[in-house]
Design goal:
The chain has a 6-stranded mixed sheet, with helices on both faces. A 5-stranded mixed sheet has the order 8-7-9-6-10, with helices on one face. A 4-stranded antiparallel sheet has the order 13-14-12-15. About 25% of the residues lie in helices and about 35% in strands. The protein contains 8 helices and 15 strands. It is globular and about 80 Å long. It has 3 domains: about 120 residues, Periplasmic binding protein-like II (D-Maltodextrin-Binding Protein, domain 2, 3-Layer(aba) Sandwich), CATH 3.40.190.10; about 90 residues, D-Maltodextrin-Binding Protein, domain 2 (3-Layer(aba) Sandwich); about 70 residues, Alpha-Beta Plaits. A hairpin with a 5-residue loop joins strand 13 and strand 14. It has about 280 residues and is of the alpha/beta class.
Length: about 280
């Protein structure tokens, strides 16, 4: 069976379980379950701390896993990213009191508090900066106020928590992260089931980002409509009972759907509608 590591708690866990469920895999019903066997799909799921997943996969104990890119890089595990999963986006940045620094080059000799020591040390080394890294497991925002550090490096979403602590971001982002599917580095022969897992996850991502659009249009206007919405390969065109009219079906990006409906109306399309796609293979 394919052995898959899944985050056991937090928003990363909830989104990972959701995408696996949409992909047709059985998932645990309670957070007390540490593992689950999906016999129908020949997969075993193990629910682990997000920070530990890259280590298990990198050591070959488990075949693949879902984790954050930042956690994978921070672990220095022997693991490679197979695909990005489109959720849990975050940005890792420096922050300090106003005027504390303008860029990473200003941090030489300073104390920097973080929960991602591996990522931070790599970034400092890449920029040739010699600074002291203070590793904390949480509440990094308080490190400056409590005198533990001069600045911090942490995940920033809205920046509200930083402002409440009297801090502001500075310099370029250290890392942009999101949830990723990983495997052990250097594995030439993929484990059984991994290609199916990847296809299913890709199908879910496409289904989330696309809708199916249907409309009726005069046959002599199909070329103009196809120029507006060409689809992934080519639209499906079927004759209607009404002479000279056809029905067209095409996949379009969800974010563009309203704009495309307006443009299709302008070239003569009528009865335009969109429907969600729950799963697909491209």
């Amino acid at each position: 069976m394919l052995r898959v590591a899944v985050p056991n708690k937090g928003s990363l866990s909830e989104a990972a379980i959701e995408i696996l469920t949409e992909a047709g895999y059985k998932q645990r019903r309670t957070t007390k379950d540490l593992s689950l066997t999906d016999a129908a799909n020949q997969v075993e799921f193990y629910y682990l701390r997000p920070r530990d997943i890259a280590v298990y996969v990198g050591e070959g104990t488990l075949d693949v896993g879902i984790s954050g890119r930042d956690l994978v890089l921070d672990s220095h595990a022997d693991a490679d990213v197979i695909m990005e999963l489109g959720f849990a986006s975050s940005t890792f940045r420096f922050a300090g009191r106003p005027g504390a620094a303008d860029s990473v080059k200003d941090l030489a000799g300073k104390r920097i508090a973080t929960s991602y020591a591996g990522v931070l040390q790599d970034h400092l080394a890449e920029n040739g900066v010699d600074a002291s890294v203070v590793r904390l497991d949480g509440a990094v925002e308080s490190a400056v106020q409590l005198g533990v550090a001069d600045v911090i490096a942490d995940v920033v979403e809205t920046g509200t928590t930083l402002r409440q602590a009297g801090l502001e971001v500075f310099g370029d982002p250290i890392l942009k992260s999101e949830a990723v599917l990983i495997k052990r580095h250097g594995v030439e022969t993929p484990p059984n089931g991994i290609e199916q897992l990847v296809r299913r996850l890709q199908g879910v991502l496409i289904a989330r980002n696309y809708v199916m659009m249907d409309y009726d249009i005069p046959a002599d206007a199909v070329d103009a409509a196809t120029a507006v919405a060409p689809g992934l390969e080519s639209p499906t065109v079927s004759p209607l009972h009404r002479q000279g009219w056809v029905a067209v079906r095409v996949m379009v990006q969800r974010a563009d759907a309203q704009r495309l409906m307006d443009q299709l109306w302008e070239v003569g399309a009528r009865a335009i509608l969109t429907t969600d796609i729950h799963a697909c293979r491209i």
